[in-house]
Design goal:
two-stranded parallel sheet, about 5% strand, 14 helices, single chain, mainly alpha, 5 strands
Length: about 350
Amino acid sequence: MENTQVQKEHKKIIFSGIQPTGIMTLGNYLGAVKNWVALQDEYNCCYSIVNQHAITVRQDAKALRENTLAAYALILACGVDPEKSIAFIQSHVKTHAELSWVLSCYTQFGELSRMTQFKDKSQKHPENVNAGLFTYPVLMAADILLYQADLVPVGIDQKQHLELARNIAQRFNGIYGNVFTIPDGYIPKTAAKVMSLQDPTKKMSKSDDNPKSFVAILDKPETIIKKFKSAVTDSEALVAYRDGKDGINNLMSIYSVVTGKSYEEIENEFTGKGYGDFKMAVGEAVAETLRPVRERFDAYMKDKAYLEQCYKAGAERALALSQRTLDKVYKKIGFLPR
């Protein structure tokens, strides 16, 4: 037992969060959540449903509650083990908001005004450019720094936020000594960048107006196959990975990740066959990969008591770990202990 505890202590810490905004796509699964599962044996992982981030855009309260529970059930269905990892809901752990306020006093206005996502989202929702939208990168920094995370899995669109978290941590450490671990980005070995099935130059997104452009993790097998059958390709009728074949490259990338086959093996498998056969094979392989996820999700959603037990235990573990960091911060900045 002692040995196991020592090993656990020496593992690096990973933090990652996902917003509970409705549909999780195949892109979210292959690009992020599938990797969360693989990391659990190698690292001490903290995974959060970041519902406090979701409210920078106006949410319907009932839908947000439902989506938060569904997102939690879905990460478990994808294979996140609440025994191995700390899996929790952000708003259940008060230290996130508390550290965020302190860190906002150590973040420069100019740093936040340079965030590209703030500019993008302000243009998307001009009627609601709120202060939270401006300061949420500080909350993201608090999410990471609370757990003394060594590594944060990041996509290209989050690199700027991680850089800000590092800057804040370095600034704070420069004033008060070694309080925060400086986090690094983690680029998964098998990260899949999944593109839209209708416009393969764009990333697959649940906010796409065309429902044929993305596959949702909980889509039925026949829906998945139908979406792949209508995927955009080219007129060459040759399954090969190379420049200028965005549609086929995207399908090959997806097929490679779900089957474990190399591009060369895929090219050989479909030599002399048309795109119809290839699209059908990709659709069937994806449907088969997602089938157990969907089945486990349905089972979890029927057992709300089990989900509640898991997220409460997760919140307790997250609070115990993060409170140690917050106490240290409060002491350093001169807050009188209660």
